[in-house]
Structure prediction request, 164 residues.
Amino acid sequence: MNNFDWTSFTKTIAIKAPLADIYNAWTKAGELERWFLKQVVFTNDKGMNIDPEVNVTGGCTYNWFWYLYEDPMPGLIKNANGKDFLQFSFEGECCVDVNLTEKSGYTIVELKHYNIPTDDRSKQYIRLGCASGWAFYLVNLKSVYEGGLDLRNRDEGLPPMINN
Prediction:
């Protein structure tokens, strides 16, 4: 594992949906809740909550709430170009870039998670854990936008598993 990159990873998926719809899936609270999170609260630079049907912009903060976990994950939207790119902080100082392109009738989603610390806890929970988590959520994004089926476990009577 000497050559293994503990500091970043990239995940890519093709989704048969318009690029604008997939951009909205990442930048509107109401859309993020369809495939990714239980609740999303975006706040602008004046401390006001952003309407769930409005695209977030760079400089906004977020609180993301997951199913089966009470504490929100706070972060910063670093860049949102209104078309095909989003960048946000994640798990502290880590960064995630989401690039969207069109090819052969698909929207290609490329997610790069980087700036991951190299302590043992970060290696386990961020590098390995988030790589697995993003793989699932990208598949769920595809499922929701191509066929409407949400694959997440939202049953609080069940323990955490790969789909939450």
User: Anything to note?
Assistant: Residues 120-147 form the longest helix (28 residues). The domain at 13-147 is CATH 3.30.530.20 (Alpha-D-Glucose-1,6-Bisphosphate; Chain A, domain 4).
